[in-house]
Amino acid sequence: MDEWMASRPVQHLVAAMLVLVATCLGVVPGQAEETAAADAQPAQMEPARTMNGLALKPPMGWNSWNKFNCNINEALVHKMADAMVASGMKDVGYQYIVIDDCWHGTRDADGFIQPDLQRFPSGMKAVADYVHSKGLKFGLYSDAGRKTCGGRPGSQGYEYQDALQYARWGVDYLKYDWCNTGTRNAQEAYTLMADALRATGRDIVFSLCEWGNQQPWLWGKTVGNLWRTTGDIYDKWEGKRTYSLGVMNIVDINEPLWPYAGPGHWNDPDMLEVGNGGMTDTEYRSHFSLWAIMAAPLIAGNDLSAMDEATKRILLNREVIAINQDPLGVQGRRVSKDGDKEVWAKPLSGGGRAVLLLNRGSQPVRIAVDWALLDYPAGLQAQVRDLWQHEALAPRRGSYAAEVPAHGVVVVKLQP
Ligand code: GLA
Predict the structure, then answer these.
(1) CB contact set of 71 (below 8 Å; sequence gap of 6+)
(2) Per-residue confidence of the chain (416 residues) as pLDDT tens digits?
(3) Which of 118, 166, 287, 297 is the most exposed place for a label (fewest CB within 10 A)?
(4) Whether residues 227 and 163 fall in one domain
(5) How many angstroms separate the alpha carbon of residue 297 from the centre of ligand 1?
(6) How far is the CA of 375 from the centre of ligand 1 (A)?
(7) Among 162, 172, 232, 326, the one annotated catalytic
């Protein structure tokens, strides 16, 4: 033992006596005062931020942007709400009617945002009331910059006032974009709006739309309920067009982010293009199935009042939707890739697996999945149900294989 160590007990004793004397003399603060002083330092005492408890399953709904861009008005929104009910979409789980960019007018004298009264002459509260009267929920769009991507007023500097206005109107969902934000820090900007939404006391699902620029999957879980992981989708199987990406390009960016998704916090690979005309029905089936297995929000982006039978069969496929909405909330992922042949799997509650065989090539191919890829013992027997043919197949042991059309998928549910 060296001299320094040996002298420590003595030093402690001396220090304790000094504190005792000083406390009695009122020179150092007592315990109560110490706690009060610590309370004044929120950085140390603040409880961990919690999730908002909403969107425990991937949100399902419709958004105006992909089909209608800025060509929106209240008659269109009524029509889409009516069609969501009449088509049966509401019955299979679609819920939100979301108005995207270009609904805004100007701010009133007190700074409260107003809708464009040419397009929404009855006001936004009336539109929300109409949507609610159909048993649906209502969503709006804004932006963390001073202007939206479409050049309308953004929420920067008006976060609490806008949140209050949305709550007064009856908004249930806010998509919050990232145009014109300059050098803003995304986590701070989105947290500010998240706090403003919480302060209203209304349940408002918060959709972060900053395109994955500042890795929202690393911090978004306690800020919002879904975050875009990519640039905008466009209605093509594959390719790039300025800021937009085809379905395959988006899939490849969104897939590796699977560990970050879960109940209440989802990766958002953007809204659906099903029914918009740029892809074949086979490609749309693949697009929808991939979104379903990736536990992505299922936000239709087509004209719901003019759907052909093929579009309806895709958007209304209850069995594929059930994969997406499975309560376990795990994002499915690619478990094998051999050129254009891919196998995707999503664990389901109850021990089942959704399995998707994807053929990215332009010729039909046979694709097989071995149980080892699914964390199943080789000898396990599983029931097999084809979720597009809507039929039970013979039970399998060890593996399953199927012929998959060009740009197509086969989706089965395995149940041991
Ligand atoms: C951005 C978003 C789109 C859409 C448009 C509206 O591009 O990513 O989803 O909201 O803005 O201008």
Answers:
(1) none
(2) 333 333 334 344 434 444 344 443 433 333 444 444 445 555 567 789 999 999 999 999 999 999 999 999 999 999 999 999 999 999 999 999 999 999 999 999 999 999 999 999 999 999 999 999 999 999 999 999 999 999 999 999 999 999 999 999 999 999 999 999 999 999 999 999 999 999 999 999 999 999 999 999 999 999 999 999 999 999 999 999 999 999 999 999 999 999 999 999 999 999 999 999 999 999 999 999 999 999 999 999 999 999 999 999 999 999 999 999 999 999 999 999 999 999 999 999 999 999 999 999 999 999 999 999 999 999 999 999 999 999 999 999 999 999 999 999 999 999 99
(3) 118
(4) yes
(5) 16
(6) 39
(7) 232
Q: Is residue 261 exposed (0-12), middle (13-18) or buried (19+ Cβ within 10 Å)?
A: buried
| The two structure tokens encoding residue 266 | 């989802």
Whether 308 is catalytic is no
Dihedral, 312, 318, 324, 329 alpha carbons, nearest 10? 150
Pocket test for ligand 1, best of 101, 141, 241, 245 (most atoms within 8 A of CB): 101
Domain that holds residue 235: 60-324
Phi-psi region of 123 (alpha: psi -120 to 50; beta: other; left: phi over 0): left
Are 162 and 155 in contact, with CB atoms under 8 Å apart? yes
Distance 351 CA to ligand 1 centre (A): 38
The closest residue, in CA terms, to atom 4 on ligand 1 is 65
Q: What is the pTM of this model?
A: 0.90
What whole-number distance in Å separates Cα of residue 122 and Cα of residue 118? 9
User: Is position 206 within any domain?
Assistant: yes
Q: What's the total number of domains in the chain?
A: 3
340 is catalytic: no
Give the pocket of ligand 1 (CB within 6 Å): 65, 100-101, 141, 148-150, 177, 209, 232
Measured CA to CA, the distance from residue 22 to residue 257 in angstroms comes to: 57
Distances (CA, A) of 334 to 245, 254, 255, 314, 322: 20, 11, 7, 22, 19
For ligand 1, the distance from its centroid to the CA atom of residue 21, given in whole angstroms, is: 67
CATH of the domain at 404: 2.60.40.1180
